TrEMBL record:
Ubiquitin-like protease family profile domain boundaries: 1-72
Origin species: Ziziphus jujuba
Pfam family, one: Peptidase_C48
Family under the similarity heading: Belongs to the peptidase C48 family.
Family annotation (Gene3D superfamilies): Adenoviral Proteinase, Chain A (3.40.395.10)
Keyword Metal-binding assigned: no
Gene field: LOC132803406
GO molecular function: peptidase activity
InterPro entries, per the entry: Papain-like_cys_pep_sf (IPR038765), Peptidase_C48_C (IPR003653)
GO biological process entries: proteolysis
Keywords: Hydrolase, Protease
SUPFAM superfamilies reported for this sequence: Cysteine proteinases
Protein name: Ubiquitin-like-specific protease 1B
Length: 103
């Protein structure tokens, strides 16, 4: 299966991210919380997803990233757009307030 890094548009010099992700996972405590996953320095592979939802402004990238991760982790096709972002922002705020976010 290997490691995978997904992006929805081409980035210049993105290859460095395939190496950096291991350090971010390590420093973020991922390997400590998941002892069944062995840390490795093998680079992630990159996959471009051309039909992924895209933001239409400069401030919604975090919400898009979170929702994209949610959809992909549940193996659903991401089907949201700019018209849905305000609802997602409000839902995240309520979930945070009532401590209902699960990680």
């Amino acid at each position: 299966m290997g490691n995978k890094y997904v992006q929805n548009r081409e980035l210049k010099n993105a290859e460095c991210l395939t190496y950096m992700l291991h350090y971010l996972l390590r420093d973020g405590g991922y390997y400590g919380k998941n002892p069944d996953v062995s840390p490795t320095l093998d680079p992630f592979t990159m996959t471009m997803i051309k039909d992924a939802p895209r933001q239409d402004n400069g401030g919604d990238c975090g919400v898009y990233a979170l929702k994209f991760i949610e959809y992909m982790s549940s193996e659903e096709n991401p089907s949201f757009g700019p018209q849905d972002i305000m609802f997602f922002r409000k839902k995240y705020a309520v979930d945070l307030y009532f401590n209902k976010l699960s990680m």
